[in-house]
Write a sequence for this structure.
């Protein structure tokens, strides 16, 4: 048993913290208010090698382990959750499937620019009829000669308005509901995106609809085996779940820090409110849940780094961290009282951002299904 | 060209100083590269990138200082030396002696240091080192130009600028504004673990404890008094002046 990080993991965390605190945190409230995607931050992250953090060096990445990637997400999440969500989608949802299922040529052509930060990636699974039930996919891909012709609409697509490549799923075998995955360049004729959704939280992250009308892509852009894209994405979702859970830890930490500091300086009835038991008990519970959630995330990330099965632990981490995060933000608002409800303090934003993590990449209900299935229920 | 950069690991400037039994407490504290040394490292790496130079970073300090050196390696330095043998620790005099012994082991054309360390704030180590080595120094630089053997330093002279020329070898110290230090790249961090970092001891340097023994003693360490409310003098001008003079004599006791 060893709860220490390696010197390299520590240094990565410190560097990302410095970057996030200096470059992102000061503009987080403005990004939220104006719903602006900070493309300039992504350019800087690309130069630092952050956009390919867990991607091997041979494919343009920095070659760090999954724990380091989670530490980076925690730091980014503390500064601006929306920015961190777009970062996570770029790596876990767009780059990882290419790393794991792509051919050598696909990795050279698509993964290298994504990892180097020369291009942004997105991932399109969700459709009107395909949310929790990804099997409900209606987008189709038909092979015509040397090309796939894709038709359909993807909704709630993170990064879609800025992405150069989208990894998406489409039906390739209607009778047997065979679903396959494809790499689609967004400059392909017939590809368009809607105007960005107006969201409750995660407002710095760009979310759009993808519209595909007779989009033609080369035959070799099929990602992974034909008709089996669905399974692939289940595998992708495992690592994405751990990553987004790390993001939840970051948000919860930020909310907790604000609440703790506030409770020590705000005085009522002649003493700091942290001296009232109902407030200090709340802070104690918040600290405990946050620590346990963090341990769950690190354990799942560690299992991933050890190449061991971690489906159940990934679901534990995602479920517990996201629910802890929302509760921590609610409690933080309560500790701040009226100030907590105001835009002037960051905790109401944290709450709005937090809620997404109980929905995206598999709802809490779906996580419980995954865990139950792992238990053989 | 070979460049030596002096690096000290210091408290993060945002940390609160806690004292216990007259000792500054280090547990739970975040340590960083002394901000002035960050300018020094950045400057050395820029010289390296512009031409052909090898950058060695050196620190005299406890083993935790390795983190600071690894960060410098991640930023782009080539090699690190850590004098973490506690027998090498003393005051500014001792540090300069130790650094001189390390510097003499090689041929450095340029030595760059921070103008001061934000913890002790003595501003002595670097200039003492120049003296030990018998080379000139230019301090508090806001701009540095190196052309062949010639060095031109723009120094911050209390708000004015002084332009000083020197020939290598020379030691210079960095002032805020010299450059904008980079973040280490993630790939740089991964490579830093594999770059050479040598630990040196008193024996390695051929020094004796007497030679480097401290010349000064810390008598007491205490936190500054918390600020109390100021006093605004009132009345006509001559009244205010006489009240002020009385206060300076008898209350603040700044004039005897
Ligand atoms: C900001 C944002 C960004 C997103 N980014 C992306 C992206 O980049 N790419 C992408 O593909 N998708 C993305 N999504 C979509 C997201 O993954 C889905 O919203 C999510 O999977 C839930 O699907 P749904 O919205 O259709 O809800 P539904 O599946 O309709 O669920 C509605 C409710 O029913 C419950 N439910 C459904 N089925 C079951 C069941 N079997 N048992 C118990 N309860 C059930 C759910 O838990 C939920 O409470 C994003 C969503 C948001 C909000």
């Amino acid at each position: 048993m060893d709860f220490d990080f390696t010197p390299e993991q520590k240094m990565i965390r410190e560097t990302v913290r410095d970057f996030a605190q200096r470059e992102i945190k000061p503009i987080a409230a403005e990004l939220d208010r104006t719903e602006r995607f900070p493309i300039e931050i992504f350019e800087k992250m690309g130069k630092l090698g952050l956009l390919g953090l867990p991607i091997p060096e041979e494919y343009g990445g920095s070659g760090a382990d999954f724990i380091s990637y989670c530490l980076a997400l925690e730091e980014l999440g503390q500064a601006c959750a929306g920015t961190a969500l777009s970062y996570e989608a770029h790596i876990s949802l767009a780059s990882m499937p290419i790393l794991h299922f792509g051919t050598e040529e696909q990795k050279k052509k698509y993964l290298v620019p994504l990892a180097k930060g020369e291009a942004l990636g997105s991932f399109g699974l969700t459709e009107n009829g395909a949310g929790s039930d990804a099997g409900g996919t209606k987008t189709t891909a038909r092979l015509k000669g040397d090309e796939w012709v894709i038709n359909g609409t993807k909704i709630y697509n993170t990064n879609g308005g800025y992405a150069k490549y989208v990894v998406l799923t489409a039906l390739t075998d209607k009778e047997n509901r065979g679903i396959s995955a494809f790499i689609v360049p967004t400059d392909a004729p017939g590809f368009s995106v809607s105007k960005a959704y107006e969201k409750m939280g995660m407002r710095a992250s760009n979310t759009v609809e993808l519209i595909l009308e007779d989009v033609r892509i080369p035959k070799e852009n099929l990602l992974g085996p034909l008709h089996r894209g669905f399974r692939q994405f289940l595998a992708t979702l495992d690592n994405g779940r751990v990553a987004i859970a790390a993001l939840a830890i970051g948000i919860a930490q930020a909310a907790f820090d604000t609440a703790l500091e506030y409770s020590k300086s705000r005085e009522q009835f002649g003493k700091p409110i942290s001296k009232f038991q109902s407030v200090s008990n709340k802070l104690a519970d918040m600290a405990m849940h946050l620590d346990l959630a963090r341990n769950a995330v690190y354990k799942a990330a560690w299992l991933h780094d050890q190449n061991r099965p971690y489906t159940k632990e990934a679901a534990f981490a995602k479920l517990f961290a996201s629910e802890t995060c929302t509760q921590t933000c609610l409690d933080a608002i309560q500790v701040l009282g009226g100030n907590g409800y105001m835009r002037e303090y960051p905790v109401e934003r944290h709450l709005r951002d937090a809620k997404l993590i109980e929905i995206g990449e598999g709802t809490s209900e779906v996580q419980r299904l995954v865990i139950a299935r792992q238990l053989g229920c | 060209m070979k460049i030596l950069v002096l690096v000290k690991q210091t408290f993060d400037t945002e940390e609160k100083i806690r004292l216990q039994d007259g000792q500054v407490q280090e547990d739970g504290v975040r340590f960083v590269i002394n901000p002035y040394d960050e300018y020094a490292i950045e400057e050395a790496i820029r010289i390296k990138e512009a031409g052909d130079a090898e950058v060695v970073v050196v620190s005299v300090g406890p083993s935790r200082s390795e983190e600071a050196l690894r960060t410098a390696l991640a930023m782009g330095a080539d090699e690190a030396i850590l004098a973490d043998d506690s027998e090498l620790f003393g005051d500014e005099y001792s540090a300069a002696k130790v650094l001189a012994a390390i510097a003499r082991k090689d041929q450095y054309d340029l030595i760059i240091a921070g103008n001061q360390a934000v913890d002790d704030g003595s501003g002595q180590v670097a200039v003492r080192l120049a003296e030990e080595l018998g080379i000139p120094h230019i301090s508090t630089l806001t701009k540095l130009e190196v052309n062949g053997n010639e060095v031109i330093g723009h120094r911050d002279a209390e708000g004015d600028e002084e332009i000083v020329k020197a020939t290598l070898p020379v030691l210079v110290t960095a002032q805020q504004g010299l450059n904008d230090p980079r973040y280490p790249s993630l790939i740089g961090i991964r490579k830093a673990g594999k770059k050479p970092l040598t630990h040196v001891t008193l024996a390695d340097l051929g020094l004796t404890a007497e030679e480097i023994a401290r010349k000064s003693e810390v008598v007491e360490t205490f936190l500054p008094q918390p600020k109390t409310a100021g006093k605004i003098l009132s009345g006509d001008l001559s009244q205010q002046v006489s009240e002020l003079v009385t206060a300076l004599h008898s209350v603040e006791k700044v004039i005897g």
